[in-house]
User: Which sequence fits this backbone?
């Protein structure tokens, strides 16, 4: 699909963005208040050769920001594709807020293009009848004569990285498993300025990565730690992005149950976020020093699988009693965090679908974040702008007692269900080197959308890919500005 900007062009459909309490953008049409509500899409079909008109509601004008525009674009994209139209003109010039407002023309162009591309996404590769993607040309009408070709190119790369994350997460486990993920990553980054190193079973054993080795015992697929290095400026402090890559989580011997547990494939959402971010970063000209660490395994019940009461010992000397095999994510992340310390990372962000408890605290729209408060605040601000929202959460030292074990240094699950997401973060903190600034993001509640909304289709959201990419950019920029001090 081609995206262009400029003045009005004839198209099958003309899209108007309508805030509440605004004037009538189309003089010949009478719009009802409900048509301008957030999320509303209303068709006015033309007769004969007349263009069709699509009204997209934005809600209260004072609350319009880039995220609202992305939402509107996603809603519009699905509506247009459903009707089967090929060319679309979007009237941005009457909507863009003035310099004293919150959204510039460039921001509106960027947001609409990103929302449209992400809203057009469909994971239908296994369907005999594919979902139609009919739009051939999307033209954005702007008030100025500015060229946004570079902006649109950057936005396309950004959307493709997020959709790569969605694709990985959506794949069924008979196709995407630890071994096939390794090969897919090698192939994806083969022509990029990224060094890919894979630690297999023997190297995991040599390095004492016993969490990965233990969790993978019940699977027919071998575990791995995937290390991707993007170093275009070695003078910068190393930033580590760590992702949990459990390609399918049956819970191990504490087997999950339910009528349909297909979404157990989403337990690699953290890994997908990191890989999507690296996809974007590796196609940019960013000057940075970044390593991505993906801990990859399946958690399956089998005669060889680890069982409750197993003790796992780590290279830092800590021993962990496995109270529940379905709390496997923290066991494999511990290996990756220790490895980040070995590599000399100064800052580390780990992201994982770690606990259902985080959703009970924050609902489905916000991930939780623990750790270095300055970094958490930076991530939260970035998330508000890019749409991958998160909320600062506390590391309550008094809750450390909930990690107690009768015969090891700690248990992998607390004895009560309350505060489980906090206790999981406290567990991970035990494996963070003192020299590292660390943030843990629990995205278990944001990894999927149950139904299409905004620019999210039903299924994997790709949460975290844009957040981590934007964070990497912000840290690289901060590092370049620092002279003789710490960012």
Assistant:
């Amino acid at each position: 699909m081609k995206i262009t900007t400029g003045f009005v062009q004839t198209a099958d459909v003309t899209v108007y963005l309508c805030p509440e309490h605004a004037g009538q953008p189309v003089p010949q049409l009478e719009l009802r208040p409900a048509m301008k509500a957030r999320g509303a899409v209303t068709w006015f079909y033309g007769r004969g050769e007349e263009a069709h008109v699509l009204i997209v509601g934005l809600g209260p004008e004072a609350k319009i920001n880039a995220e609202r525009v992305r939402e509107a674009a996603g809603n519009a994209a699905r509506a247009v594709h459903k009707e089967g139209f090929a060319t679309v003109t979007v009237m941005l010039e009457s909507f863009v807020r003035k310099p004293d407002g919150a959204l510039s023309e460039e921001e509106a162009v960027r947001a609409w293009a990103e929302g449209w591309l992400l809203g057009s996404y469909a994971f239908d590769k296994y369907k005999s009848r594919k979902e139609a993607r009919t739009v051939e040309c999307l033209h954005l009408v702007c008030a100025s004569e500015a060229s946004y070709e570079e902006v649109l190119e950057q936005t396309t790369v950004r959307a493709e990285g997020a959709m790569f994350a969605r694709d990985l997460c959506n794949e069924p486990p008979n196709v995407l498993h630890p071994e096939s993920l390794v090969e897919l990553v090698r192939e994806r980054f083969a022509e990029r300025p990224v060094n890919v190193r894979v630690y297999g079973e023997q190297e995991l054993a040599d390095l004492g990565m016993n969490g990965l080795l233990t969790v993978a015992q019940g699977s027919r697929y071998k575990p791995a730690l995937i290390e991707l290095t993007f170093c275009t400026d070695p003078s910068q402090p190393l930033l580590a992005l760590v992702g949990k890559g459990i390609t399918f989580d049956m819970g191990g011997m504490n087997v999950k149950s339910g009528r349909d547990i297909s979404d157990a494939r989403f337990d690699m959402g953290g890994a997908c976020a990191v890989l999507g971010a690296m996809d974007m970063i590796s196609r940019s000209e960013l000057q940075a020093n970044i390593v991505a660490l993906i801990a990859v395994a399946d958690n399956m019940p089998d005669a060889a699988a680890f069982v409750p009461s197993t003790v796992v010992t780590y290279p830092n000397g800590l021993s962990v009693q496995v109270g529940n095999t379905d709390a496997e994510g923290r066991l494999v992340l511990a290996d990756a965090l220790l490895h980040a310390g070995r590599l000399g990372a100064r800052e580390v962000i780990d992201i994982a679908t770690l606990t259902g408890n985080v959703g009970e605290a924050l609902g489905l729209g916000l991930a939780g974040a623990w750790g270095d408060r300055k970094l958490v605040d930076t991530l939260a601000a970035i998330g508000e702008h890019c749409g991958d929202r998160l909320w600062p959460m506390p590391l309550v030292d008094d809750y450390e007692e909930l990690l107690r074990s009768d015969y090891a240094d700690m248990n992998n699950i607390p004895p009560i269900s309350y505060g489980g997401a906090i206790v999981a973060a406290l567990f991970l903190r035990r494996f963070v080197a003192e020299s590292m600034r660390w943030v843990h993001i629990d995205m278990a509640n944001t990894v999927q959308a149950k139904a299409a909304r905004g620019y999210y289709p039903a299924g994997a959201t790709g949460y975290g890919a844009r957040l981590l990419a934007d964070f990497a950019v912000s840290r690289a920029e901060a590092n370049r500005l620092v002279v003789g001090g710490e960012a």
User: Anything to note?
Assistant: The longest helix spans residues 149-170. The CA atoms of residues 155 and 227 lie 26 Å apart. Residues 483-487 have pLDDT under 50 and may be disordered. The first strand starts at residue 2 and ends at 6.
